[in-house]
Amino acid sequence: MDRELPDRARVVVIGGGIVGTSVTYHLAHLGCDVVLLERDRLTSGTTWHAAGLIVTFGSTSETSTQMRRYTRELYGRLEAETGLATGLRQVGFIELATDEGRLEEYRRVSAFNRLCGVDVHEISPGEVKEMFPLARVDDVLAGFYVPDDGRANPVDVTMSLARGARLKGARIVEGTPVSAVLTRQGSVTPTVTGVRTPRGDIEAEYVVNCAGMWARQLGEAAGVNIPLQAAEHYYLITEPVDGVDATLPVLEDPASYGYFREEGGGLMLGLFEPVCAPWKVDGIPADFSFGELPPDWDRTAQYLEKAMQRIPVSMDVGVRKYFCGPESFTPDLQPVVGEAPELRNYFVAAGLNSIGILTGGGLGRALAHWIVDGRPDIDVTGFNIDRLHRYQNTPAYRAARTVEALGTVYKCHYPNRSMRTARGAKLSPLHHRLVERRAYFRDVSGWEMPDWYAPDGVEPIAGALSWGRQNWFPYWEAEHHATRNGVICMDMSFMAKFLVQGRDAGRVLEHVSANRVDGDSGIITYTQWLNEGGTLEADLTVTKLDDDRFWVVASDTAHRHAETWLRRHIGDAHAFVTDVTGAYAQINVQGPRSRELLATLTTTDMSNEAFPFRTAREIDLGFARVLCVRITYLGELGYELTIPTEQALGVYDLLVEAGDAVGLRHAGLKALSSLRMEKGYRDYGHDIDNTDSVLEAGLGFAVALDKPGGFIGRDAVAAKKAAGPLTRRLVQVRLTDPEPLMFHAEVVRRNGMAVGYIRAASYGFTLGGAVGLAMIDADRPIDQSYLDSGEWTVEIGAATYPAVTSIRPMYDAANERVRS
Ligand SMILES: Cc1cc2nc3c(=O)[nH]c(=O)nc-3n(C[C@H](O)[C@H](O)[C@H](O)COP(=O)(O)OP(=O)(O)OC[C@H]3O[C@@H](n4cnc5c(N)ncnc54)[C@H](O)[C@@H]3O)c2cc1C
Question: How far, in whole angstroms, is CA 439 from its chain's centroid?
C-alpha cells in the first residue's frame, strides 16, 4: 500500500471494503487519477467476515443480474491480471423450493435469469440429494441449480482488486480516515472540492463515499442523506463433518432461513432470520475494526434450529464458531448508489444488503462509468440515491424498518407484498375519511395510499399473498369498471409537485423539456426530460400557470431525481423551484361522468368547448379555489384537482356528497395500474428507465424536435431518428387467455425466440386479460406488421401462454374517450 498522502487526485474514494476497492479498480482501468483512503486496513469493516456466496440466480432485476454475472466473471479472471487469487470456487449453487409459492417464484425467476444469461436448471429432490447428500429432501418440491455459481474469498478478492488498481496507477492509503468532505458553494448546489484527513487535505473533483455502515454518518456531516442502518448478521461454523469438502455446492433454503456451504471441512450455516436486530442506531463507533458482535442466542436459537433441520448432521456436530457481524441494510433492500442530490460530485456506493461481495464487481464498474461518462450506462432507477428521502433517516425509522429488512431477503417474493414496518410516515389530509371508506393502504414512498377499497360490510384485509387472484380482485375489478363507465375519485396526494417561478422559468423548462411547454398559459403538457444521450431522466407534466409560474408534477419515485435535475439546469437563470408536495392534496376525478359531477359543484363552465382536454383553470369548489386540470392517466374523460392541504377535506366532502347522485366510487392504486396499463401509459422507473431512448420508449409524439432553441438531448434524438426505423421498442403485450396473471419479468417470445421481458404489468379488466409493457429487441425494424406477422407467447412459471402485441394503445387508440 502507499504511505504518502497525495495533495490532489481527480477522485478520492473513501473506504477500502469490497465496494471502495472495486470502484477504485474500475476507475483506474478507465484511466482516472484515483486515491483510495481507508480508515484502518482494507476489509476491516464488513468485508473481512462475509461468507462470499456468489449466486447469479434469484433477482428479477436485469441490472442486478447483470452486475452479479459481471462480478463472477471478474473474480474469475482477476488472478491472471494481478497474480492474486480471489478464492472463487464455482462449486455450483442450489436453491430449494419447499412450498408452492417459492416453486412458482423460482420458476418465474429461472425463465427471466436464463434470458439474462444465467445457466439455471430445475432439478428434482433426488438430484438435490445426489449433489448435497447431507440435505434432507423429503419436503423439497424442486431445486434450482446453477453449475457456475459458488463462493469466493472476500478478503482475497479485495486484495486482488487493490493490486489490480495499483497496477493501473491508483494510490491506496491505509490508516487514513476522512474526517470531512470539503465543499464550495455553487450557484444552486454546493460542489465537492476535496477531503480532510488527520494527515492533511486532498483536493479532488469527485468524492465517492464507500464507507459501508459508516456511510450514513459520513454523509450526514456533509448534509447528504444516506438512510442505511447496520443490523446483526449471523453464520455458524461447525466442526469438520464426514463427507464435507471444498467441492460441496452452496445450498440455500430460504423457507428455513438458512444457507449452507463448506468451511474448513465443516459446514457454514448462514442465517437470514425473519425478524432481525438493528445495531447501533445512534451511530457506528469510529474504531470498530475487524469487529464481532456477541451473538444473541436467545433471539436467534429458534431460527438456527429450523435451519439446522435441513442438514440433520449439523445438529450432531460441535459448533466451532457462532459468528455475528454487522451489515448495512436500506429501507427497500436496494443499495444506495449515485450522485447525492444535496452535493455535486459527491457519489455514494453503500448499503449492500448482504450482497456486497456478490454485486461489488458490477457496482464498481457501473459507478466508475457513471463518474467518468457523466451518466450511468445501466438502469439505475431502482437504486439511485435520489429515490430516498430524508424522513427515512430518522433513528426511529431506521430502527423500525431494519427489523424487517434482512428477513425480507429470504421471504417468498410474492407480488403485492408491501413492507409492514415504519408505516404511517406520511398521511394525506383525506386519510381518516378514506379509513372510514374501508381503504386498504399501501406504502407509497412513505405515504399511506389506498390500494383498493373493501365494499360495504367487508373489512379491508388482504388475504394470503399469492401468485394468483387474492381476495380483493373483485373489488379492484369493480373500481376499474366504475372508472371506465361512471366516475371515481382517487387520492393522488403523494405525487411530487413543484412550483417553478421566475422571469426565466419558462426558458429553463423549455431547455430541459423535450416537448413544447412554454406556449399558452393554462395548458398542461406531457413531456420527458432527457440527458445529452437522448435517454430518459424524467417523465412528467408541466402546466403553464402564467408567464413566470409553472406547475410540475412527477411520480413519487422520481420526486428527488426530477427536482435535482431541474435545479442543476437552472444555472444563473432567474428561476426558482419550490417543492410544494405537502402543501397541496391531489384528488383525481375521472370517468365519463366526471364532468357532470364537477359541473354541479362549480360556477366554472366545464363544457368541452369551454374546458377542453389539456387545459388548466382555477375553479371554485365550495369555499376553495382549486387548480383543475383536464388530463388523465387512466384513459377517460377526467380532471385532476390540486387543492391547498387545509381545504382538501372540505372539497373531498363536497365531492362525495354530490357524488351520490352520479354513482361516485372511490378507486385505489390497483385500479390506476390496470387502467393506465390498458392505455399503455408509461411509468418511469417501472416500465421505462434511464437507459431508454425517448423514441424506443414510444414517446416520440411528445418530442418537439424543431422547437426554437432546442432542448437537452435534442441532437441525440435527431440522430437516432435519422438512423432509421427502430429495432428496439416498447410494446404492449396482452395474454389472450384471461386466466394467467403477469407482474414483472415474464419472458416474451416471438416465434419461440426470447425477444424481451415484461417490465411492468397489470390485469386489463376491459381488455379481458393480463396486459403489460415489454421492451422488445429485433434484428429488423419493429412496426405493427412485424408484430402481427409473429406468433407471440409469454413464459410464466412453467407454462407458456399465447399473446398479442401492439405499438398503439390497445384501449382507445384514437383517444376518443379522453377528448369526449
Ligand atoms: C455475516 C455476514 C455474511 C455475509 N455474507 C455475504 C455473502 O455471502 N455474499 C455477499 O455478497 N455479501 C455478504 N455479506 C455482506 C458483505 O460483507 C457486505 O455487503 C460488504 O462487505 C460491504 O462492503 P462495503 O465495502 O460496502 O463495506 P465495508 O467492508 O464495511 O467497507 C467500508 C470501509 O470503509 C472504511 N471507512 C469507514 N469510514 C471511513 C472514513 N471516514 N474514512 C476512510 N475509511 C472509512 C471502513 O474502515 C471499511 O473498511 C455478509 C455480511 C455479513 C455480516
Answer: 25
